[in-house]
Design a protein that fits this description.
It is a single chain. The protein has 484 residues and is α+β, with helices and mostly antiparallel strands. 28% of the residues lie in helices and 32% in strands. The protein has helices at residues 2-10, 12-20, 194-199, 277-280, 336-361, 374-390, 398-405, 409-420, 424-442, 447-453, 459-470, 474-481, and strands spanning 31-35, 41-42, 46-53, 58-67, 76-83, 88-93, 100-113, 118-128, 137-142, 155-157, 165-172, 176-184, 201-207, 221-226, 232-240, 246-254, 260-264, 268-276, 287-297, 303-307, 323-327. α9 (424-442) packs across α11 (459-470). The longest helix has 26 residues, at 336-361. 30% of the residues are buried.
């Protein structure tokens, strides 16, 4: 029932136009409208109308126009004059006429015959868009899904009572284009009848392409959200027929979006309505135009409409008048995927830096100041001599040296660790690196030959321990240290 009442209300102007044009029987045998064509948009301050006739017994044609002014539902009828002979052209000065949108303006032509018969024809659905329009622009900010408080660039909609305050905000995200409408009304009572609550609410009309057409069509995305009952989507279809008639046909289908309506007695109500982005377009455009219409009660408890767009009751559904929302980029701090990527990369860099610092701190090196007993010094000197004699033997290991010194391998390893800070393997490699450094400085043998001569398994092993102890490669060391 609610949708039927809405359709009847929206079509009220069309009904008035039809009543204007059904006074006399229609006949298009003798007179035809040449211009303007049905659906014509007149944007100049003068509208030229022309007719032609095929009847020789018509001696006069009179032309009338019917239009609406402001919020009034009462139509204004004006005479555009009469013509006694061809060409039947009439010029209508539009300087004081408001734009005629949504239902447009209607024309009625009467042809008078010598036998007293009157031939009547009509032309409906001509739109006047000659008066300038001021568009309000607002930012369309990004917010997370589920945000139900007014955000960003708040829209103020003028009410029909001094104690009625209406505010709204719109935001976007990856899933929805969300409208939040906050109505402060000290007269609101949720105990009103269901019929009244189903009439009160909001309408949202969106033009994703900013077409600036005078009347809504299939491109328009429109929804009605009542305070009682489920929301429904409105579809508009402008229709012209051969008789010259124009009708705005509307239909409605229920929608199941996760909307919320919060009612608070003697304080007002709030509407939270997220529209799935895919309904508007695959990719949300950088800008779109829209209007927000509120159906509220006036001081006499009569249902009236107020809207963000300052216009007549029905013209508020005209895309020509819609205000503009300009989408702002998604803020860096609200881009969770980007933040996650940055955090991950920063974590890797931090881990690498920490590892580098630890590696520098833990760089193997021989202790410079060693406190040792006389017996430890003697044993260590014997150890060094044993290693120096066999340092270039590739198979040299801790067991061989320990047996030569007649001590256990564990005792020998502890001695080296305590006095140098190195393991046996690192101590051995350190000694080989010292020999390799001298040969790199004083000879022209290649690195592979030097590695083999110093006891390394291969050149790669020498490179490994060169980097470990000298923080450079044998090649770079030779370039800097070689004696000419």
């Amino acid at each position: 029932m609610n949708s039927f009442r809405l359709h009847l209300t929206i079509c009220r102007k069309t009904v008035l136009l039809v009543s204007f044009l059904t006074v006399l029987a229609y006949s298009q045998d003798c007179i035809q409208f040449v211009s303007p064509k049905p659906g014509k948009i007149v944007s100049s301050p003068l509208c030229t109308l022309s007719l032609e006739t095929t009847c020789t017994d018509i001696y006069k044609i009179e032309l009338q126009a019917r239009y609406f002014s402001g919020n009034s539902d009462t139509a204004t009828v004006v005479s555009l004059g009469s013509k006694n002979r061809s060409p039947y052209e009439f010029v209508w000065d539009l300087s004081t006429i408001p734009n005629q949108l949504f239902a447009g303006v209607a024309f009625l032509a009467e042809g008078y015959k010598h036998n007293g018969e009157i031939v009547v024809i009509k032309r409906e659905g001509v739109f006047l868009a000659h008066q300038p329009v001021n568009y309000e622009k607002r930012k369309l900010d990004y917010e997370y899904s589920g945000t139900k408080t007014l955000t960003g660039d708040t829209i103020t909609i003028p009410g029909n009572r001094s104690n009625l305050k209406i505010r709204s905000s719109v935001y976007w995200n990856e899933k929805y284009l969300t409208f939040i409408i906050d109505v402060e009304d000290p007269f609101f009572n949720s105990n009103m009848s269901k019929n009244v609550l189903s009439d009160i609410g909001a309408e949202i009309v969106i033009d994703p392409s900013i077409s600036r057409k005078p009347c809504p069509g299939k491109d328009i995305v429109a929804f009605s959200i009542p305070l009682f009952g489920i929301p429904y989507r409105l579809s508009y279809k402008p229709t012209f027929d051969d008789s010259g008639s124009f009708k705005m046909i509307s239909s409605s289908t229920p929608c199941d979006f996760p909307y919320t309506v919060l009612k608070d007695d003697y304080k007002g109500y709030k509407i939270y309505f997220p529209i799935p982005k895919k309904i508007i377009s695959d990719t949300l455009p950088d800008s779109l135009s829209c209007n927000i219409v509120l159906k509220v009660l006036n001081e006499n408890n009569q249902l009236t409409r107020v809207s963000w767009v300052k216009s007549g009751t029905f013209d508020s559904h005209s895309p020509l008048l819609f205000n503009t929302l300009i989408r702002t980029p998604k803020p860096l701090m609200k881009n969770l995927q980007l933040i996650g990527s940055i955090t991950f990369i920063a974590g890797l860099l931090l881990a690498f830096l920490c590892g580098l610092i630890i590696r520098i701190i833990r760089k193997p090196k021989v202790k410079k100041a060693i406190e040792k007993t006389e017996s430890e010094q003697k044993l260590f000197d014997n150890l060094k001599e044993a290693i120096d004699r066999q340092v270039t033997y590739k198979n040299l290991n801790s067991d061989i040296v320990a047996r030569e010194l007649h001590i256990s391998t564990k005792k020998m390893n502890n001695l080296i660790k305590n006095l140098t800070g190195l393991t046996f393997q690192n101590f051995l490699m350190y000694a080989r690196i010292e020999i390799a450094k001298e040969r790199l400085r004083s000879s022209y043998c290649n690195e592979s030959t030097i590695a083999d001569a110093c006891g390394f398994t291969d050149e790669n092993e020498m490179n490994k321990y060169f980097l470990k102890f000298e923080r450079t490669t044998p090649v770079k060391y030779r370039q800097k240290q070689q004696v000419t």
